[in-house]
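Our preliminary data section would be incomplete without showing what the modeling component actually yields. Below, a chain of 355 amino acids is followed by its predicted structure, encoded as tokens that our downstream tools consume directly.
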Amino acid sequence: MAAPHPESWIRITPEGLYCEPGDFHIDPALPVPRAIISHGHSDHARPGHGAVLATPETLAIMTARLGEGRAGESQLPLRYHEPLVQKGVRLTLVPAGHVLGSAQVVLEWEGSRLVVSGDYKRQPDPTCAPFEPVPCDVFVTEATFALPVFRHPPAEQEMRRLLESVALFPERAHLVGCYALGKCQRLIAVLRQAGWDRPLYLHGAQASMCALYERFGIGLGDLRPVPRPQKRGETVLPGEIVLAPPSAEASPWARRLADPVTALASGWMRVRQRAKARGVELPLIVSDHADWDHLLATIAEVGAPEVWVTHGREEALIHALAARGVRGRALHLLGRDEDETADDVATPEDSEAAA
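Predicted structure:
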């Protein structure tokens, strides 16, 4: 007997993607009795669920961000490659390469296999396990940067540009806007690899997640809070690098820094108008999502004859897949209009159901 098509056992509900035979949702947008969470960004990891299954790292991130008791009434940690059977559905978590603990959700039922990518990237990242392609019948992919204009340079290249600017303007601080979960830690690690062995300074919003990464064995080196000026009108940290949420660049907090060069690390910085509109002096094209080429390469690698597209630019990707003989389908999941960005959203209008 032929294996059932995933359309017969995976469906879209108001809460999100639902596995009917297993009776659980994946990254649901609303509270559900049983949730599988791909990673800790808030557009995927929401409060109020009953039982929550995720990697140990993701559960720790959820607890840190949501608080005890709000990250699920009960929690089930599942390590990578350790299968679990739920009502006949074999469930396995496989690295997605997005942030610490991020996972693809591999579902197998009666000979049919579907893989939900969650958010993912293919560039190397010393702070999380790399993406692992899994052959499947249906691949559910994100499409945050699914336009040919988005081709991300190596993060190492962008960090060299940052260090060159620091050398060129030693009298100025460099204030780098970056998302607190994943992007911040990746930038730190790549800066260390590039030879920056001096302290890096953190906005308070970044510090707790850096500490969590270090608890999981991800060394980040000497990290310090931004000091307060000793005298009225004085500024601090000339020649140093400060990492902060993007919103901090326009806040009074930033005035304590010595004539800061404003930088923003985001895949959206490929679009010059967005950098200009935000007043970013040093746009750094660093994303924790797959770019156009990596989306297409990944889909070819998993070999799925059918791809379901969500969380971004569905139309362009579906058109490109049709030219390659792959059937594409837009899922239009609810609750994805304003991704807290899984690292990349610069403004609400920039999100466009993206990350």
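Residues 336-355 have pLDDT under 50 and may be disordered. Residues 267 and 287 are 5 Å apart (CA to CA). Preliminary results of this kind motivate Aim 1 of the renewal.
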